[in-house]
Write the structure tokens for this entry.
Amino acid sequence: MTIGLRIAESRPEADAALIARAAKLPVANIGDVMNRLQAMRGGFLAYGGRRTIVGAALTVKARPGDNLFLHRAIDLARPGEVIVCDGAGDLNIALAGDLMIGHAEKRGVGALVIDGAVRDLDGIRKMDIGVWARGATPAGPYKDGPGEIGYPVACGGQVVMPGDLIAADEDGVVVIPRAEAAAVLDAAEKHAAKEGETTAAIRGGGWVRGWVEETLAGKGVAVSK
């Protein structure tokens, strides 16, 4: 195998405990505690029947408009994994449709995150699988290659390594580096709890935002009471 035409022989196992913890948190909270730098760029829409997902990444690099290696990744995926496909953001040709995604659903794939387009939206939205993509088009793909499976990819402006945790909901997609996942989730759980307190204060007519005045004053902006 050579670069651009290869499939990794192994990849990291998923950490079920970390996935379960992440699944209880809003994706925005997870992204916040990574200094807001780990979210895939805007434009990823949730097309599948499952609107929230957390799973370990199985990475795919596809030639724009060609889904040969994405097909193979579905066959290789473990139950619950999230297939992350670098399709170079091309929206002219769909990389997956309802037949292919239906096969992924039957194999227990948790979700597909595609930096590219999908099609057959009516069928996809009825399936018990997550599908996030940059857009849709009726144009179908080729199946010639080249491509890669199980190597680092770029998707939505983020580097994704095999085994990284992927969390997605209707806000979009964030990437949690595998090595830092436990620490990220510790921080995200604390952040979510704090936001819960703030929500309760707002509903009770409170929430004093003193930091706004302090920040403005620090910039020399006069704040009238």
